[in-house]
Design a protein that fits this description.
Number of strands: 6
Radius of gyration: 29 Å
Distance between the termini: 47 Å
Strand content: 15-25%
Largest sheet: 4 strands, mixed
Structural class: alpha+beta
Order of helices and strands: HHHHHHHHEEEHHHHHEEHE
Shape: elongated
Number of helices: 14
């Protein structure tokens, strides 16, 4: 490592701050000539380096042109850790890492442990939330014993294209505000999706007419939740249906619940957002 790089870093930081060599010299306790010597290839005495770093509010590593954290190595270390974890434990590990990221986005360097330790410290059926709101995006996290999830949304470049272009929300919400359509979707999400079915399933499970069952199937098919196939049975072609479950419906339930039952107990909350969400 070329230790003389520290002089170039000091010069760059000083100019960035807009201060004179004399000001830095007075803070550190040396002469302006000493600062000039550093910036021209000299090296400060070892005992002065922490004080210089404190003055510029940077790490000692950064004075030597080194990042305190190599982001690429951190990313690869996380990937390696998850890949080397048993498959049945990967989601638990990933959620622990999400909890760490949430606290880091809040600006905290936590001294406490993982999410399991947090859960153990609160009531069995309680729910906690966390949310970081800023002009660069937002997070929403469900923590603890009832429901866990993590959502991170960086600010979109174009809100109109991101949320509204080519999407008819009013039609969607009108369809799913129909109680029978909504309950059919819930029922089919609870069922083994590998099993085919006919309208008779909805007639039996939901106590609707055959024609109404066809209407419900047609509506769900509009959102690619149901696909139609034809089979030959007793020399007769018959239509049967397959259901395509989607995690998006489960996510819809999560955030619809938050709209209905507003979260009020937060572990972390930062309300530093000033721009509209749909700017």
């Amino acid at each position: 490592m070329d230790i003389t790089v520290i002089g170039k870093q000091i010069a760059a930081l000083r100019k960035e701050k807009g201060i004179k060599q004399e000001e830095l010299a007075n803070y550190v306790g040396v002469t302006a000539q000493a600062v000039s010597k550093w910036e021209n290839g000299g090296v400060p005495d070892t005992e002065l380096i922490p004080r210089i770093a404190d003055y510029f509010e940077v790490s000692i590593d950064s004075l030597f042109g080194r990042s305190a954290i190599d982001e690429s190595r951190v990313g690869m270390a996380l990937i390696k850790k998850i890949v080397e974890t048993r498959p049945e434990e990967r989601f638990r590990l990933a959620f622990d890492l999400c909890w760490d990221m949430e606290r880091a986005l809040f600006g905290d360097i936590p001294s406490d442990g993982n999410i399991a330790e947090y859960e153990a410290a609160i009531e069995k059926n309680s729910q906690r939330y966390s949310s970081i709101l800023c002009d660069q995006g937002f997070t929403r996290m469900g923590i603890a014993n009832r429901l866990q999830y993590f959502l991170l949304v960086p600010e979109p470049k174009d809100t109109e294209k991101a949320f509204f272009e080519g999407v008819d929300y009013t039609e969607f919400f009108k369809d799913f505000s129909d109680q029978e359509i909504f309950h059919a979707c819930v029922m089919l999400h609870r069922r083994d999706c590998k099993k085919s079915f006919t309208p008779g399933l909805l007639v039996k499970r939901m106590d609707v007419t055959f024609d109404r069952a066809l209407e419900i199937i047609k509506t769900l098919a509009k959102y690619n939740l149901i696909v139609t196939t034809q089979i030959e049975m007793d020399d007769v072609t018959q239509e049967v249906y397959k259901f395509n479950p989607t995690a998006s419906f489960v996510a819809l339930l999560i955030f619809a619940r938050e709209m209905i039952k507003t979260p009020n107990v937060f572990s972390y909350f930062s309300g530093g957002r000033f721009k509209p969400y749909l700017n």
